[in-house]
Amino acid sequence: MDLAAARKSIEECFERMRALYFKPVFDEWVILSPGAKAGGILAYVGPRVEEFRKNLAGDAEPLLAQVGGQKLEVGDFEFTIDGDGTRHDVLLKLGNGSYLVCNNTAKSMGEIRSDPRWLKAQAAFVDLSEKFRSDPLVS
After folding, report:
1. 3-class DSSP state of 114
2. Crossing angle of helices 118-134/3-21, nearest 10°?
3. 4, 11 in Cβ contact below 8 A?
4. How far from chain centre, in Å, is Cα 88?
5. Could you report the per-residue pLDDT of 13-72, keeping only the tens digit for each?
6. Could you tell me if 26 and 12 are in contact, meaning their C-beta atoms sit under 8 angstroms apart?
C-alpha cells in the first residue's frame, strides 16, 4: 500500500469508529517512519500542528515503554492506559519501519474504554490492523 492509500484507510477507519462510538475516538494521528525525511513524520492530522514535533518524544514515552522489547509484526498494535492528555494512546505497525500513532488529546484510553461503545469502535481498529497486515505500507 502506498502512503495515499494508507491515509485513506486510516481516515475511513476513524470515521467508522466515530460512527460506532458516537464521537471521535482519536483526534490526532501520525504516520511515522523513523529515519525518513521530515523527521520521520510522513503524515499528521490533529490539533497540534505547531507543537507536535517538538513534543513527540515526551508524548510517546509511556507507549514506547509499554512496547519496548516487543517484536511487533505488521498489523500488530498496542494500546496504553497511560496515554492521558497529549501522550499517545496507541501504536500500530503499518509496514517495515512505519507506524501509526493515535491519540485523544482530551481523554485517556481508560476513559475511552469505560464507554461500552468502545468494544464496537475497537473492532473497526482491528479491521484496520488486518488491512495493513495483508497490504503493508511501503514508504
Report:
1. coil
2. 160
3. no
4. 8
5. 999 999 999 999 999 999 999 876 666 889 999 998 888 888 888 888 888 888 887 889
6. no
Cα separation, 51 vs 31, in Å, equals 16
**E-strand stretches of the chain:** 28-32, 41-45, 77-79, 90-95, 98-103
Q: Tens digit of pLDDT for each residue in 88-138? A: 889 999 999 899 999 998 888 889 999 999 999 999 999 999 999 999 999
* Best CA proximity match to 88, nearest among 98, 75, 78: 78
Provide the 8-state DSSP code for 99.
E
pLDDT at 63: 82
Q: What topology does CATH give the domain 3-133? A: Beta-Lactamase (3.30.450)
CB atoms within 10 A of CB 11: 12
pTM of the model: 0.90
Name the strands in the sheet holding 90-95, side by side, starting at the edge strand that comes first in the sequence.
41-45, 28-32, 98-103, 90-95, 77-79
The three grid cell numbers given for residue 34, joined into one nine-digit string: 523513523
- What the block records as the C-alpha cell of 62 is 509511556
Residue identified by cell 475516538 is 25
